[in-house]
Each structure stands twice: as structure tokens, then as C-alpha cells.
Specification:
Elements (H helix, E strand, L loop, with lengths): L39 H4 L4 H9 L7 H11 L8 E5 L6 H37 L26 E4 L3 H14 L8 E4 L5 H8 L4 E4 L1 H9 L10 E5 L1 H4 L5 H10 L5 E6 L4 H8 L9 E5 L10 E7 L3 H12 L6 E5 L3 H13 L4 E4 L5 H12 L5 E4 L12 E6 L6 H8 L9 E7 L4 H11 L5 E4 L114 E3 L3
Parallel strand pairs: 1-6, 1-7, 2-4, 2-5, 3-4, 5-6, 8-13, 8-14, 9-11, 9-12, 10-11, 12-13
Antiparallel strand pairs: 14-15
Helix pairs in contact: 3-4, 4-5, 14-15
Length: about 575
């Protein structure tokens, strides 16, 4: 779930459930030969073990966010580390920007502890020898799986993630980075997985990557103690600071009050989220170092964004069917608004002959893992997902993103389209909208500061007249630059409970409740297609098999093959009233 955001995952589902691709390079063609220049990561002051691990993955140059964040994160001494708030677009390398400095400091602390233990043992041996007694023998290592020898995990660093997929991916990255570090253990704690196996994995863990719900469950049951956490990292902080996680993050904040450093990373930081973030930082945010790599206008310059108006849901489905038959598509994600829409659309695509599966929060974790693995292995071409896939999924072969249903929050649009065009690659984001989506489109324009320019396709033009999303000189609503944000019902500014509401916080209306707040299993009964069915492996770069559809793209002639970037074969014209 960024350059250096994905490392090859281990087979264990507990440490890393997916086989993530190797570190994605911001400039893969610019990787220097081994004998050309020294590894620039060494110049950042990182431990040799980490530099070697990065070099083994074929990278010698840090990305912009890494070059700026790592030195700041390493500055200071005990009790005087600077807090960081880093904003950088998806695919820019944020995961390594916080993993490398945290692991470097853990290695230094581990070496100090080893030296202290060695000095204490040498003194004990010398004392025995001075009395004429034989040297004492070192105690045997006790079996951590034996309940009589159980000790709660006491990690030195904690990384919080909003989704299971992102937590598993970050843990996989950390595992590859510590392969040359002796005795440094990584544990991954997410909901939907067996408790006992996760408890065993927690033993002697130095770095824990977790979702808040399962982490607090294990803390309350005495399986893990957070009173020795020295470094707290909040990944995708805008989501973690949102209402759904406010209480959980407030509790973790109190349990780790003794920490030395807090770091928050995200692609977007709304002003209100920044105010909430200051309450988690030391001294009310007085020591916070802020880093912003890309402004909203500059973000995703390599992703072409297109808008197509649709008269009705049926028209929108025919537009999607047209696009999905583009032979230039390698793999694609189709975003839906709700779990029901996600399941129905995936089934329609399967009937139309596409290798498609659904992904949403109501599926069990095992099914989610299996379907993502199939996507990464190329056995699935189209992933139909809710916003559970907007963060933490990095598959280099995803060339297209389709917004079939617009996100509830404008910030999520940025995360959605960031699933393509990773690490400097080119991508295409297509938004299919009806007139009822005009207000959401205006919110997205106000957030990204990039106006939509509607296009049409010959034979699929809308018959209705659609007014411009915004005026020519302003974004948002009310004629004011930036628009006027709507006030959320039941909203709150702090971490306390909402007045007259549930202490867990309000949920998004009709949205994807996939962000992990607790250990919930699959809750949607009557689901079909838990596996992948008899999908033929798609031949990338070739049109998918055209099967007569019963509910999707019915009675349509097959679309002629079209190119992707700049090819005139696909007729897309500016929309006219």
C-alpha cells in the first residue's frame, strides 16, 4: 500500500499476506550500475544493513520525499526527536521514508542493549572467576509458544494503518528491509486473522504494523504492551484522523504517551485534519516539521484524467463496457460506491466475459487475500472494489482506474486514481458520472484544483444537457474559491465522544465500512463467487473474449480495437451541450 512501498512479501499471511512487487522505483530507468556511483542511501546516514537491503533490491537513489524526510527523522537524540507531518502523492515512496529511519534507530537501540547485556554478563563471569568458581552458563532460551513462558510483546515502534491490506503491505516492506539485521523482528496485526497465530508472531517483536481494532483488542487482553513504544507512525493519517478512527487513535495516543517521536504520512492533509494531528504531536505540535512534496495541482501529472457524462445507470454501464474492451488495458480497478453495487457489477462483468472479481470489507480476510494475490499474479484483469482498495494496493500492471461510483469524500478521489501511474509510470483515470454526481465532482475539483473537461465517445454520446461542473474562474460551490465545505452531521473537532452519539463515532452514509476498527469477520450473507471461478488468464494487450452479455453491454456491437495514449483510433471529443 509508493516507491519503496512494496517489497516481496513472505508466504506467511501473518507477516505479509500478499506477494507485493519489488520496490517500485520513482525513476526505474535511472538506476545506476553497481560500479557507477555509491549508494546515496548511505549518505543519508542509514545503517549499513539497511543500505545493503536497499541495494539488494536494485535501488541507489532515494526519491524526493525520502531524501527530505529521512534526515529530519534521524535528527536529535533521546527524548528530542522531531515530529514529522509529511504530505506526498501516492507512489512517491512514503513507506520507505518512515520505515528506514525507524528501523535505523531500532538497530542502534538494539546494539546499545546488546552492549549493556554483554557488559553485565562479562562482569558476572569475572566475579565468579575471582571467587574461584566456574564461569556461569548462559540460560537456555525458553519456548515462547509455551503458555508458562508467555510474556507480552513490548515493541519499540508502532505503525498504524487504516486498512488490513495496507498494514500487510507495510509489514512486507519492513521484512525485506531487515533481512540483513540480526534479531530485529517484524509483526503484523490485522483483523480477520487467527488470534493465536498472531499472538505467537508478536513474541519479541521490535516493530509492530497494525490496524487499530485488532491492536487494541490484543492490548486489552494483555498480549501486547505499548508503554515502551518510542516511535509512532500513522500511515494514511488523513483517514486515521477521520471520525471513524478518532477514538481508537486517541486511545493509542494515551497508551504511547512516553514515545519520543510521532510521524504522520499521507497524500492529502485537509486543514481540519492538520488541526487534529497537532493534538497527537508533542507539545501541541510545536516541534513538528512539515514536508509537502507536491501541491494539489502538481500531483498525478502523469495520470490523464477524463470525465464522461451518462444519461442513466444503463448508459454508464455501456460506457464502462466500451472502455473495458480497450486492448491497451493491462489490468484495471473499477471503483464502486457500496458493497452491493460492487458485487453486482463484478457479476455482470463476469457474465460479459471479463476476468473480474470484487473486493470489499464484508469479505473475509482470507478471500480478500486470495483475490489480491490473483490480481498480482495476472489471473484477474479487472478488480471491482469499494474504497477498501483506494489505499494500500500497489500493482505495477494497473494501467487504468475507473470511477464508476464517485467517492463519498473528495480526498479519496486522489487516493483512488493513485492506484495507477505509480512511481512515474503513465496511467489513465476515467470518471463516469450522472447529473446527480455534479456536486461531488465540484468537491473533487475544489480539492484537486484541476477542472474536469467532459469528453464524449461516438455512438455513446449523452442525450441530456449537462451544465459545467463549476464556473470558469472558481472551484467549489457558492462562487468562492475553494468552495464552502459542508458541515458533517454529528461531526466533532477533537477525539472525544460526539454529543448524543455512539462512542465509536458515526459511520459514513451508504459507504464502505471496510476500514478496520475491530476484528469483524465476513458479515454479508448470501454472497456468491467466493473464489475466482473458471477464469481464463487474460492475455494482456489483447481484447478480452467477447461473450454475449445478458445484463451488461447487451445487444452491442464489439468495439473496435483502440490505442491508449495519444492514439487517434479512439474517438473522444469534447462534450458540447
Amino acid at each position: 500500500m509508493d516507491s519503496f512501498d512494496h517489497l516481496t512479501a513472505l508466504p506467511s499471511q501473518e507477516t505479509a499476506a500478499f506477494e507485493a512487487p519489488a520496490f517500485e522505483a520513482a525513476l526505474p530507468e535511472a538506476v545506476a550500475p553497481a560500479n557507477a556511483t555509491p549508494n546515496a542511501f548511505a549518505a543519508l546516514g542509514l545503517a549499513p544493513e539497511l543500505v545493503q537491503a536497499v541495494a539488494d533490491l536494485g535501488f541507489t537513489e532515494p526519491t524526493t520525499v525520502q531524501a527530505r524526510a529521512i534526515p529530519l527523522a534521524l535528527q536529535g537524540d533521546a527524548k528530542h526527536f522531531a515530529d514529522l507531518m509529511v504530505s506526498s502523492q501516492t507512489g512517491s515512496g512514503k513507506t520507505a521514508a518512515f520505515l528506514l529511519p525507524v528501523l535505523h534507530t531500532l538497530i542502534a537501540h538494539q546494539e546499545e542493549a546488546f552492549e549493556r547485556e554483554k557488559a553485565a554478563w562479562d562482569a558476572k563471569v569475572a566475579e565468579a572467576l575471582s571467587r574461584g568458581e566456574p564461569a556461569p552458563k548462559r540460560p537456555r532460551r525458553k519456548d515462547p509458544t509455551n503458555s508458562r513462558h508467555f510474556k507480552p510483546a513490548v515493541p519499540g515502534a508502532l505503525v498504524l494503518c487504516p486498512t488490513r491490506e495496507l498494514a500487510q503491505q507495510v509489514a512486507a516492506d519492513a521484512i525485506d528491509l531487515v533481512k540483513h539485521c540480526r534479531g530485529l523482528r517484524i509483526a503484523n496485526i490485522v483483523g480477520g486473522m487467527p488470534y493465536q497465530l498472531q499472538i505467537a508472531k508478536l513474541q519479541n517483536a521490535n516493530l509492530v504494523v497494525a490496524t487499530p481494532g485488532r491492536l487494541l483488542d490484543l492490548q486489552r487482553s494483555g498480549q501486547i504492551k505499548l508503554d515502551e513504544v518510542r516511535f509512532l507512525v500513522v500511515d494514511e493519517a488523513d483517514r486515521m484522523l477521520d471520525l471513524g478512527f478518532a477514538d481508537d487513535l486517541a486511545e493509542v495516543n494515551q497508551l504511547t504517551v512516553q514515545r519520543e517521536q510521532t510521524m504522520m504520512f499521507s497524500a492529502t492533509f485537509a486543514p481540519r485534519i492538520q488541526q487534529l494531528a497537532m493534538r497527537v504531536m508533542h507539545d501541541g505540535g510545536s516541534r513538528v516539521q512539515r514536508i509537502q512534496i507536491d501541491s494539489p495541482r502538481e500531483a498525478h501529472a502523469n495520470i490523464r484524467q477524463e470525465l464522461y457524462w451518462a444519461d442513466s445507470p444503463d448508459h454508464k454501464r455501456r460506457l464502462l463496457d466500451y472502455w473495458l474492451r480497450d486492448p491497451a488495458i493491462n489490468q484495471a480497478i473499477v471503483f464502486a460506491c457500496t458493497q452491493i453495487e460492487c458485487e453486482e457489477l463484478a457479476e455482470d462483468l463476469q457474465q460479459a466475459g471479463f476476468a473480474a472479481v470484487s473486493l470489499h470489507g464484508a469479505l473475509s480476510q482470507a478471500v480478500r487475500n486470495r483475490r489480491l494475490t490473483a490480481l498480482r499474479e495476472g489471473r484477474v484483469q479487472i478488480l471491482v472494489a469499494t474504497d477498501v482498495a483506494a489505499r494500500g494496493i500497489d500493482v505495477p500492471t494497473i494501467t487504468h482506474v475507473f470511477n464508476f461510483g464517485l467517492p463519498m469524500k473528495a480526498d479519496d478521489y486522489t487516493h483512488r486514481i493513485g492506484r495507477t501511474g505509480r512511481a512515474g509510470r503513465d496511467g489513465l483515470a476515467v470518471t463516469l458520472a450522472e447529473i446527480r454526481d455534479r456536486r461531488r465532482l465540484a468537491d473533487i475539483e475544489a480539492c484537486t484544483q484541476q477542472p474536469f473537461k467532459p469528453l464524449t465517445i461516438d455512438g455513446l454520446e449523452p442525450t441530456k444537457s449537462f451544465p459545467p461542473v463549476t464556473g470558469p474562474k472558481e472551484f467549489g460551490r457558492g462562487g468562492k474559491p475553494g468552495g464552502r465545505p459542508r458541515r458533517s452531521s454529528g461531526g466533532r473537532e477533537g477525539f472525544g465522544r460526539p454529543h448524543g452519539g455512539d462512542s465509536r463515532g458515526p459511520r459514513q452514509f451508504n459507504s464502505e465500512s471496510s476500514f478496520d476498527r475491530s476484528d469483524r469477520g465476513a458479515g454479508a450473507g448470501g454472497r456468491r463467487n467466493e473464489g475466482f471461478g473458471d477464469f481464463a488468464r487474460p492475455s494482456h494487450g489483447q481484447p478480452m473474449a467477447r461473450v454475449k452479455a445478458t445484463t451488461f453491454g447487451q445487444n452491442r456491437k464489439p468495439a473496435a480495437p483502440r490505442g491508449h495514449a495519444g492514439a487517434p483510433a479512439r474517438v473522444a471529443k469534447p462534450y458540447k451541450k
